[in-house]
Write a structure and sequence with these properties.
This protein has 14 helices and 30 strands. The chain is of the alpha/beta class and 684 residues long. The chain has 3 domains: 2-134, Immunoglobulin-like, CATH 2.60.40.10; 152-569, TIM Barrel (Alpha-Beta Barrel), CATH 3.20.20.80; 571-681, Golgi alpha-mannosidase II (Immunoglobulin-like). The strands form 7 sheets. An 8-stranded parallel barrel has the order 14-15-18-19-20-21-22-23. Strands 1, 2, 3, 4, 7 and 8 form a 6-stranded antiparallel sheet that branches. Strands 6-5-9-13-12 form a 5-stranded antiparallel sheet, with no helix packed on it. Helix 8 crosses helix 9 and helix 12 runs parallel beside helix 14. The mean pLDDT is 96.
Length: 684
Amino acid sequence: MTSTFLDAGVTVRTGRTLPFGATVVPGGVNFSVYSTGVTAMTLVLFRRGEREPWLELPFPDCYRMGGVFAMTVSGVDIDDLEYGYRADGPWDPADGHRFDPGIILSDPYAKSIGGLETWGAERLGTDRYPYRSRVVRDDFDWEGDRPLGIPRADLVIYELHVRGFTRHPSSGVGAPGTYAGLIEKIPYLKSLGVNCVELMPVFEFDENATDRFDPATGGKLVNYWGYNTIGFFAPKASYATADPVRELKNVVKHLHRAGIEVVLDVVVNHTAEGNELGPTISFRGLDNRTYYMLDPSGGYHNFSGTGNTLNCNNPVVRGFVLDCLRYWAAEFHIDGFRFDLAAILGRAPDGTPLPNPPLLESLAHDPVLRDCKLIAEAWDAGGLYQVGSFPNYCRWSEWNGHYRDTVRRFIKGDMGVTGELATRFVGSPDLYGSRGPAASVNFVTAHDGFTLRDLVSYNEKHNEANGEGNRDGDNANHSWNCGHEGPTDDPAVLRLRDRQVRNALLLLLTSQGVPMLLSGDEIGRTQHGNNNAYCHDELSWLDWNLTESQGQLVRFVRNAIALRRAHPVLRGRSHLWGDGEFPEVSWHGVRAWSPDWSAHSRLLAVMLHRDRDCVYVAANSYWEPQELELPAAPHGMVWHRFADTSADAPDDICEPGSEPRLDDQATVPVGARSVLVLTAGGTR
């Protein structure tokens, strides 16, 4: 069936049901949208910039197959087109139905969203369709680019926020806070040695969708982090100078040229629609009962802490998530995905944890996603904590929260932690014994929590500027201010803080597993004690002036990463074994081969050895120096000093290959609250 709308110069005909969304086809655009329970569906067309619709096209019954409405429209200017849907059906919240034909709905599969092109720009309250779906042309020239396929064990991940990375005036880039600005900083990332960036959410979100104000200044707070998705297929428009799709693809292409993979932080556990008091943007108006986990009264389960939870193991929603990630992998050459609150993805529609979650299994075995890294934040806001027990299908890695907490506790000097640090240091075999150490993504800090500088500068969180009376944010930070809360001029405190930062970084970069650095930790970035800066823009920007004032710290991190790259024993594909004349892992203490696992011990010394590659690490969290008896280096080699955090820069670390030989091969001092790294080489 074909119909012509002469006044508009538009012709419509039966469309193709798949793929969903708006697809450019010969002669026009194919629109396909899913909804069950709906009684009528209308395609609403706008010209860009116009507040009122240009044309409304009801779907005839013959354009519907099952729960899918499909229509091909000819005679439209793609570059001047925005579109949405009206879905008519029952309004019965108790039964899960919230259809309202008076609301124009965004397409869940929209490849671009209009209306959010300028960061922080307030929308008119009278705009009845604020998030406008747009059609995208597929004409990007990848110039032969392909995903890099770096082995997981070789990754050094660097978590960054696209806007915050270059928005500060000191960044010196041409377009601060954008994808283009990130490209200009690729030489810095390459010089640092990281080979994977994990981008905080770049799916379209509305930074203005908050109702909080800074109590001190009265300024409106923003949804800075972006964990509240508006468009799952659409790149964040305000991170672009003109075309977000093209510009994000350009970022990926340039990062790949530099040998750096791209992992996206994806939020497929909830949407920006919130609970029953939130806005109706897309899913709620199209098929509320299908897309969301609902309780028996029709209310929303809230395992995400944001008001709603996507019904991820419903077959339709599972298909949506798979389509979304396939799109990013295939069309944007994304190398992997980190899943926010991933424990939610294993819940049944009623919220019960599933023993064999269909979505997680599908993601693990999907043919398109076969080579993508899959990383789970293996907990959720509903209390489900699955670190080490996340349904992994031999594919998933996990943010290792146990590693984070153990390293933090050890460097601050807590008792009874040394034994657990040993387990975490060698890749947490108690958690990932069958998967190997690369299943553990090790981190000390991430976007959520203190920066590393703040971790050693504050005993307590200071989130008053969030407007929640300092009630938000984690209270269990395992932080230590080194003797003074916050900023100080005390040289002894400052020296200790500098050493503690280096201790954490050196342990992280010599541990088995995949290390992840938080952007800015390598230059001493601070959030002034705020451990939940989700709602702050300027507070979270990188001040690039710190690369000069903290140049010795940058150098330290660069060399520590280079050590990891130079020594395969630090990047084990399998767990190290403790047997044989020269075991792959051996534990030591003040006496060689005699570790102290007692509760009061604050010393851990370990020798890692595999295929004639050997590294010795000693970590002393005691407030006094200790003299250590060294084990003999294997194969007639001798010990060289690579790093000693108790020494002043530049003697705190060497470039790999330039380590000085120890004069005394039998004993070595390890300073108070410090970490020592030796490498074996040469011959006696």
